[in-house]
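Lecture 7 notes: from sequence to structure.

We start with a single chain of 97 residues. Read the sequence below before looking at the structure.
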Amino acid sequence: MSERSRCFDGHFDGAPILPGVAHLALALSACAAQSGRAVVLKALRDFRLKNPLMPGDDVDVRLTPGSDASEIRFEIRRRGEAASVGVLIVDQGNPLE
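Now the structure, written as C-alpha cells:
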C-alpha cells in the first residue's frame, strides 16, 4: 500500500491503518483485473479483518471461485499472513470462471 494513499487519511491519526472498505476495493479491483471486466458487488459474506494493513505494506490478493457461480472467495495477505478474508457475491456470474 502506498504510504501516500488517501485511504489512510484520518484512519487513524498517528497510527494509520487501511479501513475495511478499502480491503473490499482491493478485492474487487483484483477481480476486475483477473477477469478483464467490471465486477458488480451485490453482497458480502463472512468478511473478517484479521491483521491491520499499514502504509508501505505489500499485499497479495488471492481469489478463488466460491460454492456457486456468483461467489468469489478472497484473501488479502501481508507478509504471509491473512489481513482480511471474505466472500464477494457478484452480479452476472463469477468472473473468474
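The radius of gyration is 14 Å. Keep this in mind for problem set 3.
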